Structure prediction request, 128 residues.
Amino acid sequence: MVSKERWKCSSIAVYNLGYHIIWCSKYRRRVLKNQIRQRLNILLQEKAKEIHVTIESMEIMEDHVHLFVKSDPTACPQWIIQQLKGYTSRKLRKEFRELTTRLPTLWTRSYYIESVGHISEDTIKKIY
Prediction:
């Protein structure tokens, strides 16, 4: 039997929605290090809490960010990414002047996202 902690409940749904998200700095510049990296970590946690998203794991590389997040069914994945990227870009560029002189924007427009669930695609195909 699987633990019930895996599921969240709302008044109308039981869910377990997870997303693996990756995005890069503009031109893959290696700017996400030292104090910028530390501040980015804090900002991502702040914004995630504000928009009711749980960051299960995070890895900040020098030129890109990996997140595994969980959210409720009302939060569109694209909106989650927009909120995280927009907030962190605005705050970091305001606090670290070198980000405005080296880059026209902090993040690229693109991102990678994959839904991650407990039940594999093969399992679902077997059920149906």
